[in-house]
Amino acid sequence: MSDKPRKFKGGVHPNDSKALSAHKPIQEAPLLDSYKVIMHQNIGAPPELLVKKGDEVKKGTLLAKAGGFVSVPLHSPTSGTIKMIDKVPGPTGISVPCIEIAADGEDEWDSPFEPITDWKTTDPVELRQRVWDAGVVGMGGAAFPSHVKLSPPDDKKIDMLILNGAECEPYLTADHRLMLENAKEVVIGGSILARILGLESCVIGVENNKPDAVEMLKKAAANHSVHVQDLPVNYPQGAEKQLIYAITGREVPVGALPMDIGCVVQNVASAAAVYEAVVNGRPSIDRITTVTGKPLVDPGNWKFRIGTPISKALELAGGITEQPAKLLLGGPMMGIAQSSLDVTTMKNTSGILLIAQDEVSQYTSEPCIRCGRCVDCCPMQILPATISQAVENHRFDWAEQLNVMACIECGSCSYSCPSHRPLNQQFKRAKVEIRAGLRKKG
Amino acid sequence: MSDETPKINLPDPTQLVVSNSPHMRDKPTINVIMFWVVGAMLPGCIAAVLFFGLAALKVLLISTLSCVIAEEAWNKAMKRPSTWRDGSAILSGILLGMNLNAGAPWWICMLGGILAMILGKQLYGGLGFNPFNPVLVARVGLLIGFPGIMTTWDKPDLGNMAIDGITAATPLGLAPGETLLQDMLLGNVGGCLGETSALALIVGGAILIWKKLIKWEVPLAFVGTVFMITGAMHLVNPEAYHSPFVHVLSGGLLLGAFFMATDMVTSPMTHKGAWIFGFGCGLITSLIRLWGSYPEGVSFAILFMNALTPLIDRGTIRKPFGFVAPAKGEA
Fold first, then answer.
1. What are the beta bridge partners of residue A85?
2. What is the mean pLDDT of each run of 10 residues along chain B (331 residues)?
3. Is residue B11 part of a domain?
4. In terms of CA atoms, which chain A residue is nearest residue B324?
5. Cis peptide leading into B22, omega within 30 of 0?
6. What distance in Å separates the CA atoms of residue A47 and residue A75, rounded to the nearest whole number?
7. What is the distance between the alpha carbons of residues A336 and A91, in angstroms, rounded to a whole number?
8. What average pLDDT does this structure show over A106-119?
9. How high is the pLDDT of residue B177?
10. Would you say A276 and A134 are in contact if contact means Cβ atoms under 8 Å apart?
11. Cα–Cα distance, B91 to B260 (Å, whole number)
């Protein structure tokens, strides 16, 4: 039953710092006076606005409908009136359109759809439509619409569904608490997803630094054909391609998608959102987020509705004892640094992380000493040091030949570099340049 | 909830640093790595001082100081920031001392330091840019310029001396008896500081491999190749060729294999490349030792392979995860 997972080549072992919040149960965040819901919360096309200023909405009312196939609808996190439709600072620092809802305090539900209790006999097409209608996206960080992955073209045979509960980013414990406290939802969500794909079973992959979650999942999975696979701790174990390899031994070809080798991966939080959408008939309007970091008084895990400002989340964690150096959305390896406390949570906000002054220092990057640490730890088996040289010489054609496009931007190379070279940053730039077709002649 | 929040402090957003991920860095920096390598050199240094006395200490100190001073003087002249704290000059200095004879005059040590740091390293742009191992550039430079001084070895003070200068005059007449091997292992033989105690070098090498500071493939391929080639020749004609054990334990082979050929800057980055590099070093060393006009070939072998390193790196570009041959991958 439990065959040993394969170990992908490379990877790093940063201090996981999960102890700050791993033992804190999920708390429901109190209702706020207003929510600023960022409109474009998914990869793909932005949704189309359906409401205007002054409209009355209920909790779950459709605010915007999907703007295409690779797009998802957006629902109101509470009942109240639309205060304004404006721009707020987005997580990337660029202002983005948002819908501000003034809460009326009633928090009254009006879900656009009914529960489907007999999902075991429901047509998979209807279930998939429900996943779409509920606005479920990849909640691990990418925010890719879940229903798209559940709609493989006819020529792609899917034989493996993997739920990603690796949570390999240091500090984050949101998925851990979810799997521990809501194991049943995750398992049933996984079973629903399997049914949509026409599969009998699915596998949940969890890094073995969460033995309690593995145990709860196994208990919950007892009556379902869901297999729980514990995985070695090795960042980036939760990266889609590395996870697929660890569990199935299949390698996603460069430039291809998991569905090309018969695999679909969904985040465990997305599976729980699918459970909510199908079994309880409720759209995706909240998620569990870890608010953590050494400067915080009381780190923990909260269930936040979308549109909660970071400042409110930090207040719930008791505020700070010292000025942090950085504020991140996500984990320390791939998270995005923020410069405003007004940014609001989205469906993919897995963590709000404060990094203390003494945890970071400003580095001057030094020359490469060719030690090969980046080469050893690259999970995609490319040659970071050599590509870095190409990028520094504006030889994007060379970088492309060296397979920079295969880079998953996990940051392991930058993490390991003793010269503190900005490898990850250079590769991101190279990918943008190559995509833009701006090749310079060398 | 609002009335019990008087003392909650929030971050000052204007003080937040915005930078690219990752926001965590592994602890080892260049100087941490360099000082670990220096630490791995210590057993060899201690053995050298034990066998050659304070003269060895003097050589090590002068070489190290001259490397540091040469590098800093160059930085000053070129108006560049000081770099000695990265530890690479100190490491080069100690390695240079290990490549010299205990009786080497002070000015040879100084000249070596200048050659290593200026000619071997800074002229190319400093740390990370030199194609050749700076210490070997200095050693070979001195060997060519002052062959007399560079091939006269002091006798160790401890125990009996069976041979006078294993590298200077490879003692083909001497049967490779057990005493000789034992002496070579412990370091009771003539040679430069780092060519004496094989045991101390092996301990240092083990530290390097354990701390993952070097690629273990290089010393293994290097020593293994020398052992096999010289062993084959020994089997063919034991009268004319030395036992492979003598070859492995003598001269600068272990010093070269563990500490010089593994220099990160001048050796290949991939593990496959490390095998090729180590094999090449072993092959050339054997050829020079067995049939060349020099008694010792380690330095030349490593320098030669240094020159081939960019080529090896080019030739060993690995396939990425999920690589598909272009012909098959049409979809």
1. A99
2. 66 90 89 92 90 89 96 94 91 94 91 96 93 95 87 60 37 45 67 81 93 94 96 87 84 90 94 96 93 83 96 92 67 40
3. no
4. A253
5. yes
6. 11
7. 7
8. 92
9. 46
10. yes
11. 11
A25 CA to chain B: closest CA distance, Å? Answer: 20
What was the pLDDT predicted at B293? 75
CATH, residue B56 = 1.10.3430
A225: its two tokens: 């054909």
Q: What is the distance between the alpha carbons of residues A168 and B195, in angstroms, rounded to a whole number?
A: 47
Q: Which of B3, B8, B23 to mutate to test the interface with A (most CBs of A within 10 A)?
A: B23
What confidence tens digit (pLDDT) does each residue in A316-342 have? 999 999 999 999 999 999 999 999 999
Is there a domain that residue B213 lies in? Answer: yes
- Sorted by where each starts, the structural domains of chain A and their CATH numbers stand as 26-104+284-359 (3.10.20.600), 116-279 (3.40.50.11540), 373-435 (no CATH)
Helices (H) and strands (E) in chain B, counts: 13, 0
pLDDT of residue B54: 87
In whole angstroms, give the CA distance from residue B170 to residue B173. Answer: 9
| Predicted pLDDT at A217 | 95
Give pLDDT tens digits for A355-386: 999 888 777 888 999 999 999 999 999 999 99
Do B320 and A382 lie within an 8 Å CB cutoff? yes
Determine the pLDDT at residue A93.
84
The number of C-beta contacts closer than 8 angstroms across A and B is: 183
Structurally, how many domains does chain B consist of? Answer: 1
Phi, then psi, of A320 in degrees rounded to 5:
-115, 160
Report yes or no: B33 and A344 within 8 Å, Cβ to Cβ.
no
Mean pLDDT, range A260-269, rounded to an integer: 96
**Residue A121 to residue A223: CA distance in whole angstroms:** 17
Residue B327, domain member (yes or no): no
d(Cα A245, Cα A251) in Å, to the nearest integer?
6
Residue B16 lies in a domain: no
State the residue range of the domain holding B178: 30-315
**Interface probe, candidates B4, B9, B17, B24, chain A, greatest A C-beta count within 10 A:** B24
Say how many C-beta atoms besides its own lie within 10 A of residue A352's C-beta: 27
From B38, B259, B46, select the one nearest B134 (Cα to Cα).
Answer: B259
Average pLDDT over residues A108-128: 93
β-partners of residue A287 are A304
Q: Quick one: pLDDT at residue B165?
A: 36
Best residue in B30, B75, B269 for a mutation probing chain A (most A CBs within 10 Å): B269
Q: What is the ipTM of this complex?
A: 0.85
Sorted by sequence, the CB contacts under 8 Å of residue B81 that are 6+ apart come out as B75
Distance CA A297, CA A300 (A): 10
The answer to whether the peptide bond before residue A236 is cis (omega within 30 degrees of 0) is yes
- Two tokens, residue A35: 């929510």
User: Can you tell me the distance from the alpha carbon of B59 to that of B57, in angstroms, rounded to the nearest whole number?
Assistant: 5
**What are the tokens at A296?**
């915080």
pLDDT at B103: 85
**Summary mean pLDDT of chain A:** 93
Contacts of A14 in chain B (CB under 8 A): 24, 26
